[in-house]
Design a protein that fits this description.
alpha+beta; Immunoglobulin-like; 23% helix
Length: 145
């Protein structure tokens, strides 16, 4: 009996420690989500072949590491991410970037995921990435008009 109650008491601190780690991890994710945001366009917006994306970064120095990246048809596997023009500063932590959505053969209604990510990677326009870089990010899905 003594051993079973020891096991119970030994398990409680472990569970509390694991719960604390999970809480800290989720708070960290929220902090990342607030570090960068896309303000325009909003989710589900129909856009032409070029759209101006506007957003903010909480830390103005992150503008130097901000990349805007697009993934066509995001629910399909094996789709690459396409790096867009480097965002331009528009005062404070505000930024804007011209984003290309498909080409002349892209069907109307096709979904594109636009992400703004603060990354340590040195990326440039037309780079193709197999995955979204690690770092604070925000994404919106839009539809080709």
């Amino acid at each position: 009996m003594k051993n079973s109650s020891f096991a119970c008491y030994g398990t409680l601190p472990t569970l509390l420690a694991i719960s604390s780690l999970a809480l800290v991890g989720s708070l960290g994710s929220e902090a990342w989500a607030q570090a960068v945001s896309i303000d325009q366009p909003s989710i589900g917006t129909e856009v032409g072949s070029e759209v101006t994306v506007r957003g903010t970064v909480a830390n103005g120095s992150d503008l130097e590491r901000l990349a805007v990246i697009v993934r066509p048809d995001p629910d399909k596997t094996n789709q690459d991410w396409w790096v867009q023009e480097r965002p331009t500063k528009s005062g404070g932590g505000n930024w804007s970037a011209a984003v290309h959505i498909g080409d002349a053969n892209t069907p109307s209604g096709m979904v594109f995921r636009i992400c703004a990510v603060v990354t340590s990677l040195n990326v440039k326009r037309e780079d193709r990435l197999s995955s979204l870089p690690d770092g604070p990010s925000d994404c919106v899905d839009v539809k080709k008009r």
